[in-house]
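Quick review question:
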């Protein structure tokens, strides 16, 4: 044992671990979310041998469970079984203790010395987070000997409410999948699962007093395909949780210090409930469980007394299942169109004397009446409500916590009104949005663009609030609406690794946050994703390729990089790159036709392959100037894009195409020496719906001096018709061979969009890519 310590200490000091052949692996406390204070000490490390015991205080069942979790995590990482014993101390042991003094109940202290490890906290939850940090510090290395540097970590979360929301109504997820969702939360130190259980498209919770809610309301006959395409899949869809199953999930979560907050979304998003109980709607129906996405006009009738009874009855059963102090009652996106027409709703407005003013309509006031009713009922039973920020609209219920989703404005307003706020802005934390711009190569998502870096950059404390008002910002949450997440694998893909970024917003103090540093720590968390079999998005691990045509050398200069400096292997001959392909560690200079393929190789797995076909013509990589301006919005890398040997695909927004608007594409290429040419070809990309049209003409002029040009070919093209397709158009002009140094290429843009189009009479965009001169 003693000798092993020395070896480990020596290796740690000299940093030879990586090249050493023995199975030594070093723990690293730079985990995600980053602990507040990490002091690595010079003392001898702790060796995690198979004879290490886990010790917890006798008679504390939660601590016993903590010990079991730790043993399970360690077994996964090391392959070893660790014995669990009761007690308060021990050598060669990991001791779990209560009694740490801290104001924050979720704080913990993790101490590592050569004799053992101690995790101490004021609460069992704190110990659990210490265990999570320990688990993430240890590399996944079955069979290896793990050495933990001596250290003291003092840690606590920034926010008490660290949430994720899970919509199980648009799509249903099984009990096991929900448990897996909770396990994912645990890995990211999250502690609130906002469970969105009811929707227009399905009611997912058994309610004994209203059995049709699940008999009828949990099933839709089919589901719309894509983004409300008007086409349906013809496949019946359904699912719900029995009360027993919901309680099982609550218990599973509680063991992992996760509180389940149920949401019954009212008075809108109720079409599935109305399908089951049509008398609760303004029109009386009939209604169907909705088969498409969006916000239904069919909402609970606010003038109907049985609506209030319904709400009370539902909430009564919800409270029996969910011990959470918060119950979410929705309140978002409730169209008032039916209330405006409904005699019962209007009679209630009248009898209550509700008036519109410059801030609120009388129907918005009526919504507040419903929300206030639900709040009063829940408050009387010792519970508190959360509502989406629309609950501000008719005047806020007295004790409501506001979940700010339409950006941060609602949260700021609520904090000013001295209400607690949970920040979940769609501008940063809607994880149903895309995480890449390359949407053509992605599973369908709702839209938007929230890459990892933007998520990470989110600071939930609005600077416009005073320090006193900022105290009302009590939590941060990301939302997972599942219209476009039909499988749990897709939920994981949209969540991970964005949860890693979210976890640092929720846990780590802002002064310690740093995106570049976060990226360095991320691959080790990804190893755990791999070990757990999670399906995560890999965009951030991809190879980034920067292409620069180099007129001096006549080469396409390619700079390949990765976020973490992982080795990049490449090929140019069309074969798939592997670990034995050459490594690109400087600028790659491409001088002839070929396909560049590059992959980053890491122990956690390979990146996706970047692939680019490069085709040379006589004009490739030559100097080029634009004689008329390129449209600023679509300028990208400017005129050299036109001669870089890389062709745009059918999507004009990728950066491969550049745009001209109100003027023409008018460029001059310097061939560097007199060159014989006989043909010029260009491509355009058309997307008529976006006012992007084909060229109206093409002309070629040549010159010896770059000043006096002679036209050698030209052609006009007709205006596009409504029937013409979108996509790529090629235009080629051939002429008697001439020798020239300079070639001017002019493609005329559409100056007046034809009558059949909504933009008639206005200019259209012209998107051009590769000009090839031969
Ligand atoms: C919401 O996204 N409708 C709260
Ligand atoms: Zn009504």
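Suggested answer, residue by residue:
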């Amino acid at each position: 044992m003693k000798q092993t310590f020395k070896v480990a200490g020596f290796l740690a000091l000299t940093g030879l671990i990586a090249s050493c052949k023995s199975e030594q692996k070093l723990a690293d406390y730079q985990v995600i979310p980053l602990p507040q204070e990490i002091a690595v000490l010079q003392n001898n490390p702790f060796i995690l041998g198979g004879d290490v015991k886990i010790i917890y205080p006798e008679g504390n069942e939660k601590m016993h469970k903590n010990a079991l979790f730790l043993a399970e995590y360690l077994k996964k990482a090391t392959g070893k079984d660790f014995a669990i014993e009761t007690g308060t101390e021990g050598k060669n042991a990991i001791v779990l203790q209560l009694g740490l003094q801290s104001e924050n109940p979720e704080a913990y202290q993790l101490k590592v010395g050569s004799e053992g490890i101690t995790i101490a906290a004021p609460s069992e939850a704190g110990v659990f987070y210490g265990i999570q940090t320990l688990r993430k510090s240890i590399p996944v290395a079955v069979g290896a000997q793990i050495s933990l540097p001596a250290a003291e970590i003092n840690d606590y979360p920034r926010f008490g409410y660290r949430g994720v929301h899970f919509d199980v109504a648009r799509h249903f997820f099984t009990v096991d999948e929900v448990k897996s969702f909770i396990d994912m939360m645990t890995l990211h130190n999250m502690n609130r699962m906002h469970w969105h259980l009811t929707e227009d498209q399905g009611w997912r919770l058994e309610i004994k007093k209203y059995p049709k809610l699940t008999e009828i309301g949990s099933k839709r006959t089919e589901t719309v395909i894509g983004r409300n395409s008007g086409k349906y899949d013809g496949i019946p869809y359904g699912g719900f949780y029995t009360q027993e199953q919901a309680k099982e999930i609550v218990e599973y979560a509680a063991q992992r210090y996760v509180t389940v907050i149920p949401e019954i979304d009212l008075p809108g998003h109720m079409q599935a409930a109305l399908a089951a109980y049509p008398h609760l709607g303004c029109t009386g129906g009939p209604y169907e469980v909705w088969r498409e996405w969006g916000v239904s006009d069919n909402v609970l009738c606010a003038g109907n007394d049985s609506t209030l009874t319904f709400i009370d009855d539902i909430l009564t059963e919800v409270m029996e299942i969910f011990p959470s102090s918060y119950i979410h009652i929705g309140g978002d996106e409730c169209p008032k169109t039916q209330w405006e027409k409904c005699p019962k709703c209007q009679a209630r407005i009248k009898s209550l004397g509700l008036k519109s003013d410059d801030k609120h309509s009388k129907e918005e006031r009526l919504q507040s009446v419903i929300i206030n009713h639900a709040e009063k009922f829940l408050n009387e039973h010792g519970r508190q409500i959360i509502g989406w920020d629309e609950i501000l609209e008719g005047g806020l219920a007295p004790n409501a916590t506001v979940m700010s989703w339409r950006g941060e404005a609602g949260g700021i307003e609520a904090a000013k009104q001295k209400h607690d706020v949970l920040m979940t802005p769609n501008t940063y934390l809607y994880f149903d949005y895309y995480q890449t711009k390359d949407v053509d190569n992605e599973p369908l998502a709702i839209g938007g663009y929230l890459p990892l870096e933007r998520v990470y950059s989110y600071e939930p404390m609005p600077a416009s609030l005073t320090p006193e008002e900022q105290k009302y910002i009590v939590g941060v949450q990301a939302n997972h609406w599942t219209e476009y997440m039909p499988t749990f694998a897709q939920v994981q893909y949209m969540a991970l690794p964005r949860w890693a970024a979210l976890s640092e917003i929720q846990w780590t103090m802002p002064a310690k946050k740093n995106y570049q540093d976060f990226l360095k720590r991320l691959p080790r968390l990804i190893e755990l994703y791999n070990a757990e079999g999670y399906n995560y998005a890999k965009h951030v691990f991809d190879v980034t390729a920067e292409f620069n045509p180099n007129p001096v050398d006549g080469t396409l200069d390619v700079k390949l990089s990765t976020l973490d400096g992982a080795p990049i292997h490449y090929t140019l001959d069309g074969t798939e790159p592997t670990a034995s392909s050459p490594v690109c560690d400087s600028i790659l200079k491409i001088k002839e036709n070929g396909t560049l393929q590059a992959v980053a190789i890491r122990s956690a797995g390979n990146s996706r392959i970047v692939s680019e076909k490069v085709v040379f013509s006589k004009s490739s990589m030559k100097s080029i100037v634009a004689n008329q301006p390129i449209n600023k919005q679509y300028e990208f890398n400017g005129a050299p894009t036109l001669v870089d040997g890389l062709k745009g695909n059918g999507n004009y927004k990728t950066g491969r195409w550049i745009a001209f608007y109100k003027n023409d594409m008018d460029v001059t290429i310097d061939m560097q020496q007199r060159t014989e040419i006989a043909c010029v070809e260009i491509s355009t990309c058309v997307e008529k719906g976006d006012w992007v049209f084909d060229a109206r003409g093409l002309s070629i002029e040549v010159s010896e001096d770059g000043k006096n040009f002679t036209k050698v070919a030209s052609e006009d093209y007709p205006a596009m018709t409504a029937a013409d397709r979108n996509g790529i158009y090629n235009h080629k002009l051939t002429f008697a061979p001439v020798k020239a140094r300079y070639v001017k290429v002019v493609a005329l843009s559409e100056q007046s969009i034809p009558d059949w189009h909504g933009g008639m009479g206005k200019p259209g965009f012209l998107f051009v890519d590769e000009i090839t001169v031969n």
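Why it works: The radius of gyration is 31 Å. The chain is about 25% helix and 30% strand.
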